[in-house]
Please model this.
Amino acid sequence: MTFSPLHLLFPAVEVQAEYKLIDHLGLSLIGGYGWPTEPIEDEDGVEQDVRFDVIEVGTQVMWYPLRKFRSLQVGGELMYIHVSTQEPIGDENATGLASGVAVGPLVGYKFIVGPGFTGFVQGGVQFIVLHAEASDDTGATDSEDASAVGVNLNLNLGWSF
Model:
């Protein structure tokens, strides 16, 4: 069981639980929740912080070619991300919703020290597909579909038992 200390900067919390399927193969479930804010300018040019709610759910499959359940990791990650907001911006109420999927390969290194202190660092490439929608109380709406290739970096700390 590990968590990502880097997510605390957003602010968000992400936890990951890995189960050893066999000696050299692990399956992880990942879940997270965040509440970052972003400055947005209204139609009068006044900037205000808007809060977003972020939910992520995903999985990883990791193969450990050198040692049982530690050392070099080779695998992949699949992540679903949902972002929403419903905030007043200036004199209008705006709602926004975005959801997407990120998938890609990872390479990393996992260490277990002493009675179970665990950490890992992973890096890889991910393909991202998303859909976003926004509307306001005047009836104006907009939507956008997008895809991109990005970098996936993970740093987790926790405990193995």
Remarks:
- The chain has a mean pLDDT of 93.
- The longest strand covers residues 92-113.
- The beta strands are 2-3, 12-22, 25-34, 37-41, 47-51, 53-63, 71-89, 92-113, 117-136, 141-159.
